[in-house]
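Handout, page 2. Input:
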Amino acid sequence: MFEGYDEEILKDDQAQLKLNVWLTGLHLTKAKIYAGEKKYVLAKHYANSVSNVSDPQNMLGERKKEAQRILASLPS
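Output:
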């Protein structure tokens, strides 16, 4: 993502959306891994980061639902 950032920003009017899709995918993956390893604070952190991404057009709805499922599966 770091290497391709400038290219995406310069060439595409939907660069922010693409970056948000990629980042939320990475954060969901991390949340799942940490949950599986019983590192619940880290799992909550990454799942919450997906839930809190600004998404006025609701393009990340499924990812946000997945984040909520992960959060619901974690112990309090």
